[in-house]
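Need residues for this backbone.
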């Protein structure tokens, strides 16, 4: 082993460790590697930056824009509504239809985005049919992962593998080259989940049994906050009257988290958002959260001129409904991860107030404001309807899960849905026909989305998930560095020497297993970057066609079923499904083995080895 190869492998090892630890962020790791690779002397600065000129990087970025156009025009939401209207009350039928719909949509847009769209839909369907969300969330996640096996653009690893084929002078895969493999895997998943869903949680959330719309009082009880929530009337002598909440600083000075203000009027009670500029008046009722003992609160109320009232009859979800509520979830790539609720400053940043925290099945009580937020945490937020609507359609670092029935789903460009479908159809037609390169076809579709005003230019830039773009562009030079130093050939020779005598099928199985296991620790995109050159080198070493080996790596990169940290998709469904780590191991590992067996049987059958 040369010194240059040792340096490249050392850098690769450091990158894998940082990926596995989850710190720093994956895109930051890619940038660190970009800075470090030229220092080894293996690559020039221009070669290290060459990943960003790869067509797959441009293609991934534009696909995010096209996917956002489908969301903004309401096409994705209408698909969910259509699904909800045709469930027929059968759990297995619902699950099958859900998986088919998610896989179909995910084959054309980001799988993470598809899951984000469908989580609220699934929660509403589960509540309506009184089905535990845990019976549906894992099938949702698995279908989203399998959607990457259906088309060339279904997931970034497919594009990475295709780019590697082109770099080696081969023709590359077609748009539907993956479909003959993805469809059987999807059908296998539906059959498997029809049995395995019995192993998942059958615990229905409290709202599933209620049947009615959500109320703040009900959700407070679900979050274990009822005993710490109080209604306090402002008395005649209270020093709080006439001063803004920002000036009073009740949370910092007294531990009182004001969630809302009830203001009695002649014919009704008006519910006000507890914004910093809100001013309590004599006779107003403060809805507060206080984690101390009841005796402490009563003593504090006496000093502040407040009188405790019953909490049972409070419900802000009524006419004129100025105040709303929602459950939100922290996704894996959220900027809120690692921050406490206080540090996140929900009230000043988003006009919303955090009143509860849930992690898995456990609701946090005292101290939730100081607890560091983690991916998959769910928060209970309250605030004005307009702010909740912004959370529903805007780019915020949390995902809206549940909201009252009268918070309508808004599609800002719903009248442009036919134009969005036309744009998508043009992209697919151009990619299938091969008239223009895939990246150019996506650019044409993205420009059509802009021209038809399905999405504006600012929205297009916001829609691109830049960490994914940076990750792909930053990790691609590793492939070149390993090839230049002989690392790829060395790995291929080792794999051939170990498994070559057992035959091509054993080699394919070994590549699938190595790719899937590597994907447990680093992203599937980075895994594809590392394993695709090895697969092609193995094919060359054995004198076999490169296509079966490239395909097996692409399929294995999407088979991230085994742990909740294998993919952002799994992290998204972890909280709403109320899963534990072991749930994914128990259900995902056997399925990954089945997918490997099916892939190893199908790939050489449909893509001849010679």
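Answer:
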């Amino acid at each position: 082993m040369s010194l240059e190869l040792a340096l490249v492998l050392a850098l690769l090892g450091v990158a894998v460790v940082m990926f596995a630890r989850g710190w720093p962020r994956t895109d930051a790791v890619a940038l660190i590697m970009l800075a470090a690779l030229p220092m080894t002397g293996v690559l020039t600065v221009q070669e290290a930056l060459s990943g960003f000129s790869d067509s797959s990087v441009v293609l991934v970025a534009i696909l995010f824009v096209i996917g956002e156009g489908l969301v903004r025009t309401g096409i994705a939401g209408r698909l969910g509504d259509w699904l909800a209207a045709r469930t027929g009350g059968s759990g297995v039928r619902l699950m099958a239809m859900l998986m088919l719909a998610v896989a179909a949509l995910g084959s054309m847009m980001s799988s993470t985005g598809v899951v984000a769209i469908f989580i609220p839909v699934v929660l509403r369907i589960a509540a309506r049919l009184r089905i535990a969300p845990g019976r549906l969330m894992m099938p949702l996640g698995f279908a989203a992962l399998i959607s990457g096996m259906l088309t060339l653009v279904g997931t970034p690893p497919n594009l990475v593998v295709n780019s590697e084929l082109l770099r080696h002078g081969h023709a590359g895969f077609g748009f539907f080259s993956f479909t003959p493999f993805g469809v059987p895997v999807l059908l296998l998943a539906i059959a498997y989940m029809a049995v395995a869903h019995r192993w998942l949680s059958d615990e229905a959330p409290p709202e599933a049994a209620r049947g009615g719309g959500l109320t703040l009082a009900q959700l407070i009880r679900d979050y274990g906050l009822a005993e710490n929530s109080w209604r306090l009337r402002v008395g005649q002598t209270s020093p709080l009257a006439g001063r803004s909440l920002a000036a009073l600083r009740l949370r910092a000075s007294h531990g009182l988290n004001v969630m809302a203000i009830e203001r009695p009027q002649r014919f009704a009670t008006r519910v006000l958002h507890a914004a910093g500029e809100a001013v309590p008046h004599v006779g107003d009722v403060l809805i507060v959260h206080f984690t101390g003992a009841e005796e402490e609160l009563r003593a504090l109320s006496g000093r502040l001129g407040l009188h405790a009232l019953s909490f049972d009859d409070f419900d802000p979800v009524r006419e004129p409904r100025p105040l709303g509520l929602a459950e939100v979830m922290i996704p894996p790539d959220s900027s809120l991860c690692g921050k406490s609720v206080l540090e996140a400053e929900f009230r000043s940043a988003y006009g919303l107030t955090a009143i509860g925290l849930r992690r898995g099945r456990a609701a946090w009580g005292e101290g939730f404001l100081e607890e560091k937020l983690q991916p998959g945490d769910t928060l209970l937020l309250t605030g004005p309807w307009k702010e909740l609507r912004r959370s529903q359609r805007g780019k915020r670092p949390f995902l809206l899960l549940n909201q009252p029935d009268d918070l309508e789903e808004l599609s800002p460009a719903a009248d442009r849905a036919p134009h969005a479908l036309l744009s998508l159809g043009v992209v697919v037609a151009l990619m299938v026909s091969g008239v223009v390169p895939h990246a150019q076809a996506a650019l044409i579709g993205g420009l059509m989305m802009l021209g038809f005003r399905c999405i504006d230019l600012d929205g297009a830039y916001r829609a691109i998930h830049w960490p994914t773009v940076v990750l792909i562009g930053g990790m691609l030079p590793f492939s070149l560095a390993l090839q230049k130093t002989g690392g790829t050939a060395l790995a291929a020779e080792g794999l051939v020497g170990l498994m070559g005598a057992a035959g091509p099928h054993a080699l394919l199985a070994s590549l699938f297993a190595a790719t899937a296991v590597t994907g447990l620790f680093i992203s599937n995109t980075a895994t594809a970057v590392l394993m695709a050159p090895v697969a092609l080198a193995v094919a060359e070493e054995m004198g076999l066609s490169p296509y079966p080996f490239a395909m097996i790596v692409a399929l294995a990169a999407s088979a991230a079923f085994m742990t909740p940290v294998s993919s952002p998709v799994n992290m998204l469904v972890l909280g709403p499904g109320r899963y534990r780590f072991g749930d994914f191991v128990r259900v995902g590992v056997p399925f990954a083995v089945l997918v490997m067996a099916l892939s190893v049987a199908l790939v050489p059958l449909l893509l001849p080895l010679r």
